[in-house]
Amino acid sequence: MSVTAPQGFRASGVVAGIRTGAGPDLALVVNDGPRHAAAGVFTRNQVKAAPVLWSEQVLATGKLRAVVLNAGNANACTGPEGFQTAHATAEKAAELLGCGAIEVAVCSTGLIGSQLPRENVLDGVAAAHAALGADAAAGLAAATAVMTTDTVAKEAAHTDVAGWSIGGFTKGAGMIAPSMATMLTVIATDAVLDAPALDAALRPAVRVSFDRLDIDGCMSTNDTVLLLASGASGVVPDAEAFGAAVTDLCKDLARQMQADAEGVTKRITINVTGAADEDDAVTVARTVARDSLVKTALFGSDPNWGRIAAAVGYSDAAVDPDRIDVTINGVLLCQGGVAAGDRSAADLKGADVLVEIALGLGDGAAEILTTDLSHGYVEENSAYSS
Amino acid sequence: MSVTAPQGFRASGVVAGIRTGAGPDLALVVNDGPRHAAAGVFTRNQVKAAPVLWSEQVLATGKLRAVVLNAGNANACTGPEGFQTAHATAEKAAELLGCGAIEVAVCSTGLIGSQLPRENVLDGVAAAHAALGADAAAGLAAATAVMTTDTVAKEAAHTDVAGWSIGGFTKGAGMIAPSMATMLTVIATDAVLDAPALDAALRPAVRVSFDRLDIDGCMSTNDTVLLLASGASGVVPDAEAFGAAVTDLCKDLARQMQADAEGVTKRITINVTGAADEDDAVTVARTVARDSLVKTALFGSDPNWGRIAAAVGYSDAAVDPDRIDVTINGVLLCQGGVAAGDRSAADLKGADVLVEIALGLGDGAAEILTTDLSHGYVEENSAYSS
User: pLDDT tens across A348-364, in order?
Assistant: First the structure.
């Protein structure tokens, strides 16, 4: 179950002929209310795709009736014509739903720099409107239509004992970096919450989930995470419980993205403790997660802690070279900055690798999820224009 | 001709049994004077190898009689024992040359985290001392002994019409990043110059040469560039001419490193103009140079300017998305942030790729040299522990 798990939501996914090849490529998510509160988090890239520029305006109202998403074309670097296409897409959905265009967000993902075929999109919106459903299959259809190099649809849902539900889907399998990715995420809830409450739950959740997933250090022009609340359950949730549910859901979706990242053979967790503060812990973990020499060593199942120590050293965080401990899959390999134990004791043959780095300076801790740098990554990103 | 091109220098390269497999792995460069002025630039990595910690102390005196270099082991993350090995190495050379240990710098490159076999190194220093020569073959022997994954020795030399000469060698083929690389460079001159004059020539030269070479964003624990002056020509050079010669030599060596980088199939130059200032230009060029999606696209000979625009956008520099122009191999593909011209007109089949990015904001300009991200890079760095 995904975005249709909560009451008050319908979804669909259809073939609009935007992407190369067959397959669905346009999704619609509709909030049937009675409430239409919403919050959003967008890419920090200075080059923002047209749908991001449009949807940022929409979300400024704190109200959202529907979301149109497409795969196959990012509608980025497309100038005024691209913005008009995003606007026309929202107008088309609004006309069908009997609301204003300013109540419809638009998300795109795919190739940067070519115009989105407007007529295909508008026809696709009409087809998606006709195909709307409130069951699990409808949610899955929407989650499937936004896939690019993803190999599986990514959904999650949770029903709280207090009587409200939350569910959503995400896409993204590469170009995933600080402040999200080529990722589009739509999360729905039937809890009774206003826009500021949704925003207060969503921002910290994104910060410790999607923002801590760093596949290749590349930040997209299109990243969007939306949270919509219908209020259809009639239940006002406990703020803390709701925040925890949003965070858990985002972390679940982020782990699914990590597992499906382009060319991945290892799911790597970089866990940093003992940093001066949390920011420093994130900086160290992210630097190690992005280091090409670390990523290729782990692809080769080589517990090369020296490359990890070198990456810790060139991070912008405060570190004491004589206090660095590095543990890989439970085996302490570097203690106080020098070799400890037997490298061959660290078994990296499995798909999961846990790198623990203790800095011995303070209480700052953070975890970054990443993957190895494999032949598959090179193949996928050199053979395929995206 | 290389480090032995100027008068007053001898060099050698011998087999010391440090690296796995056969081949020379220890080099010695001696300045026979009459002067012994020197300057050095070292890695900014907070995790510094023992030879860097030692040599930084040596260079603080502004005087250098000799340099011992080894390949096969970085002597990094080796604690007090590693530092004692670096010190003992300098003492051994000093004893043979009749000078103080504080006049001998030590450089190492290779695997991080294992102790350098001290006896092999000390025996190697004795053998290298016995093998010293002042001809081109001796310089080449030294340049060859420091190679790791390098496939060719890298040398350059220049004789000035004013009567002084300069020459040097470098090694480094990966882990090359901001503030240099796993690179060791020794440059010699017979000009009459004191340590502050050498320092004043070397720092700006490194800043626009080795610091502008960014293969994989990884900064080494061992990077060292040394400049030694014997004064043997008896000529005091024009400061500007000498500075230009050092810069040209460093740029020549940096281009040789780019051409020999691990797994390289494309030599890529990222040229940024129109930035608010030079720092911003470097930031943009470096961000694009490091972007895995850009590097894999160029490996695939795909002029994917959209990925370049996205990387420009997430750099920390000031950019206006509506003013970005991107030209690849002379073909304008993006103008004012949107598609311009025909992608297929940009021919990327050759080994050289020039990416020109114009930001339209100011006069800041900079160039970064990099390479593509290929199967060869992944293969070399996953199959080989370094």
Answer: 999 899 999 999 999 99
